[in-house]
Design brief:
alpha/beta, N-(1-d-carboxylethyl)-l-norvaline Dehydrogenase, domain 2, about 55% helix, oxidoreductase activity, acting on the CH-OH group of donors, NAD or NADP as acceptor, 6-phosphogluconate dehydrogenase, C-terminal-like protein, six-stranded parallel β-sheet, Rossmann fold, NAD(P)-bd_dom_sf
Length: about 350
């Protein structure tokens, strides 16, 4: 009679061990890769953030036949997408509850944290087990790592996948996409991601963000060089249109020149990428430099020049508006030399 409680205890221990092993196995499977082929007939997509970039990126998904549920802070900004067949949700959590994959592309790290990690309305509160959240915002690498950890605990996959290429790349579906996270999940999502641009796998969680920040460091100094060259050419009496045509096929040719050279000459400062957001990106870069113990003087100079644009109330202009800061510094204007 005394052995029965012991037998029950041993059976209970064995059962609990089996359940624990099964749970661990399931968690391992959920963090390796998804299993369903991604296609319009099998996959629903959610999208949060329909600004300058998001509008065009969503349109590619709709044209490919994907069912798309969207949320943005100002519903009127998403009206064109709603007219094209997208469905509206009242919160990030509601988007997630109706989607297998949720993309986010918002303004600042604080926005990313709110839309994904908020305990009431965040994406992860509504996401299905084995769903995928893909943050395409340029944000902090440490936040990307945190999101991946919290998502994994909930049986959800998370990728950081910021993009480069501006509004033109978004419209044409030619963005560079820098992916961090599980490589197997990135491969599973390739049919969707290639609708938006070229997929580049950079490593584990946070590596996509590190790549994008290095990209921004490169762009910052390139933009300074492009505009300094224009001011020098203007002071030299060169026709700026002829000057840009001449250098575009040589060693000075660049994506920045291709995207922004003519816009600068036309005084077209409409944002393909906001000064405010670029200042945010460069600020994150400088913080990461401090953590790494490295000094990048070109980055620091560019950041200060862009901060000066904000000080003049020009934060909602495009990054090509950097010309205004350098024109003020030199008491000149390129307008007289652009013909």
């Amino acid at each position: 009679m005394r052995t029965k409680p012991l037998i029950r205890l041993l059976l209970s221990f064995h059962t609990n061990q089996t359940l624990t092993t099964t749970t661990i196995h399931r968690r391992h499977v959920m963090t390796s890769s998804t299993t369903t082929t991604v296609s319009p007939s099998t996959t629903t997509i959610g999208w949060i953030g329909t600004g300058v970039m998001g509008q065009s990126m969503c349109s590619h998904l709709l044209k490919a036949g994907y069912k798309l549920t969207i949320f943005t802070r100002t519903q009127s900004k998403a009206q064109n997408l709603l007219n094209s067949g997208a469905h509206w949700a009242s919160s990030p959590a509601q988007v997630a509850s109706q989607s297998d994959i949720v993309f986010t592309i918002v303004g600042y790290p604080s926005d990313v944290r709110h839309v994904i990690l908020d305990k009431v309305n965040g994406v992860l509160t509504g996401m299905k087990v084995n769903g995928v959240v893909v943050d395409m915002t340029t944000s902090e690498p440490s936040l990307a790592v945190e999101i991946a950890r919290v998502a994994s605990e909930r049986g959800v996959h998370a990728l950081d996948a910021p993009v480069s290429g501006g509004d033109k790349g978004a419209r044409e579906g030619t963005l560079s996409i820098f992916c961090g996270g599980d490589e197997g999940v990135v491969k599973e999502l390739t049919p969707v991601l290639t609708l938006l641009g070229k997929v580049n796998y950079m490593g584990g969680p946070g590596k996509g963000q590190f790549c994008k920040l290095a990209n921004q460091v490169t762009i910052a100094s390139t933009m300074v060089g492009l505009i300094e060259g224009l001011i020098y050419a203007s002071k030299s009496g060169l026709n700026l249109g002829d000057y840009l045509n001449a250098i575009s096929s040589g060693a000075a040719g660049s994506k920045s020149l291709e995207l922004y050279g003519q816009r600068i000459l036309k005084r077209d400062f409409e944002a393909g990428f906001y000064v405010n957001h670029f200042v945010k990106d460069l600020g994150i870069c400088l913080k990461e430099c401090e953590k790494m113990g490295i000094g990048l003087p070109g980055l620091a100079l560019a950041q200060q020049l862009y901060v000066s644009l904000k000080a003049h109330g020009e934060g909602d202009l495009g990054t090509q508006a950097l010309v205004l800061a350098l024109e003020r510094m030199n008491n000149t204007s390129l307008e007289s030399s652009r013909q």
